[in-house]
Write a sequence for this structure.
C-alpha cells in the first residue's frame, strides 16, 4: 500500500465530518424557522378564534339592545292602544305590537344560536391559549438548544479544519490536487476499496496487470473507470493468524 493512502483516507474522513457539521449548522436555522412558522400559524388561528368569539359577543350584545328597544316600544304601544278611540287605531297599534314582538322573538332565537356557537369558540380559545403557552416554551427551549449546538459545531469545525490543514500538508501537492478533483466529482467519496478484484464504487473488474501494480503499492492509483483512488488491503491468511495465536 502506498504511504499516502492512509493519509488520503484520513483526509477524506476529516472532510466528511466537516461536511456533515456544515450541513448541520446550515440546517439548524431552517429547523428553527420551521418551528417558528408552525407557532405563528397557531397564533393566527388563535387570533381568528378570538376575533370570532368577540364578534359573537358583540352581535349578542347588539341583539340584546335591540330587544330592549322593541320591548320599550311594545310597552308604549300598549299604553297608546288603551287610549285608542276607533277600532282602526286599535288594530293599528295591535299590528305594530305584533310586529315588534316578532322582532323580539327573532332576536331571541338568534341570541340562542350565537350562544350555541360561542361555546365551542370559547373552548377552542382556552385550549389554544394553554397549548400555545407550552408550545412557546418548547420553541424557546429548541431555539436555545439550536444556538448551543451551532456554537459547539462551529467550535468543532474550527478544530477539524485546522487538523485538515495539517493532514493535507503531509500529502504531496499533486495527490492533494487530484484528491480535490475527485472529491468535487464524486461529492466527497474519493476512495474505493478493491474487493475480489473489483472497484467497490463502480463494481468494474480491474485489469490483472493494473491490480498487480496496485498491490505493489509503489504509487497512488485510481480506478480506470470512475477515477477514484483505489485502496487495496491484502487478504488475511487464516493459517498465519492461527500460528501467531
Amino acid at each position: 500500500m502506498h504511504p499516502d493512502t492512509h493519509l488520503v483516507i484520513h483526509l477524506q474522513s476529516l472532510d466528511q465530518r466537516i461536511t456533515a457539521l456544515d450541513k448541520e449548522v446550515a440546517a439548524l436555522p431552517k429547523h428553527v424557522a420551521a418551528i417558528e412558522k408552525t407557532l405563528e400559524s397557531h397564533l393566527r388561528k388563535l387570533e381568528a378564534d378570538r376575533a370570532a368569539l368577540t364578534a359573537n359577543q358583540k352581535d349578542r350584545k347588539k341583539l340584546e339592545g335591540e330587544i330592549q328597544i322593541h320591548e320599550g316600544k311594545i310597552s308604549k304601544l300598549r299604553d297608546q292602544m288603551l287610549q285608542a278611540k276607533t277600532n282602526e287605531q286599535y288594530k293599528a297599534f295591535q299590528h305594530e305590537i305584533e310586529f315588534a314582538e316578532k322582532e323580539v322573538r327573532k332576536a331571541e332565537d338568534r341570541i340562542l344560536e350565537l350562544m350555541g356557537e360561542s361555546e365551542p369558540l370559547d373552548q377552542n380559545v382556552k385550549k389554544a391559549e394553554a397549548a400555545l403557552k407550552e408550545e412557546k416554551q418548547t420553541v424557546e427551549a429548541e431555539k436555545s438548544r439550536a444556538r448551543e449546538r451551532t456554537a459547539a459545531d462551529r467550535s468543532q469545525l474550527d478544530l477539524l479544519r485546522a487538523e485538515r490543514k495539517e493532514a493535507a500538508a503531509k500529502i504531496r501537492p499533486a495527490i492533494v490536487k487530484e484528491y480535490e478533483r475527485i472529491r468535487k466529482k464524486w461529492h466527497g467519496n474519493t476512495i474505493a476499496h478493491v474487493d475480489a478484484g473489483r472497484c467497490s464504487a463502480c463494481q468494474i473488474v480491474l485489469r490483472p496487470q493494473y491490480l498487480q501494480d496496485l498491490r505493489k503499492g509503489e504509487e497512488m492509483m485510481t480506478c480506470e473507470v470512475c477515477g477514484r483512488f483505489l485502496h487495496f488491503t491484502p487478504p488475511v491468511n487464516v493459517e498465519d493468524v492461527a500460528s501467531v495465536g
